[in-house]
Amino acid sequence: MEPQGDGLKYAELTDKIVGVFFDVYNELSHGFLESVYEESVENLILLELKCARVLERAHDAQLLHYLRSTNIEVGLLLNFDLPPQFRRLLFDNERKKIRENPCKSVAKVSA
User: Fold this and answer.
1) CA spacing 20 to 30 A to 47: which of 55, 69, 72, 100?
2) Can you say how many angstroms the Cα of residue 95 is from the centroid of all Cα atoms in its chain?
3) pLDDT confidence of residue 34
4) Taking each helix axis from N to C terminus, what angle separates 93-100 and 102-110, rounded to the nearest 10 degrees?
């Protein structure tokens, strides 16, 4: 899958997921454990489900850590609380290659 017209990677799929997120939220509301809301998505987008009062930087950091650790590039942070919130994070696989061997990458850039 290539970036859509708006330039976001997997934009169509993430739009569908966010739509389903709000459908589930409207059906169940808030107050359940994350496992109640859990569903997997095609190994293209990593979902991190939360039931927190607000999304915090630590939640972003956790999702970025998961993205760094996998070949998945797009992550959605979905918070099933009042109000429902979501964030879309991206960590390109090209950037992960640079992080694997920073010395080699720096040498290539400076050459």
Assistant:
1) 100
2) 16
3) 75
4) 100
pLDDT of residue 90: 95
The secondary structure of residue 10, as a DSSP letter, is: T
Q: What share of the chain is helix, strand, coil (3-state, %, to 5)?
A: 45, 15, 40
d(CA 14, CA 72): 13
Token output for 43 = 């190994």
pLDDT band at 50, cuts 50/70/90?
very high
Please, what is the Cα angle at 24 between 66 and 49, to 5 degrees?
A: 20
**Residue 37 pLDDT > 90, yes or no?**
no
Q: How many CB atoms lie within 10 A of CB 41?
A: 17
Question: Which token pair is 69?
Answer: 């650790």
pLDDT value of residue 40: 46
Integer Cα distance of 37 and 26 in angstroms = 12
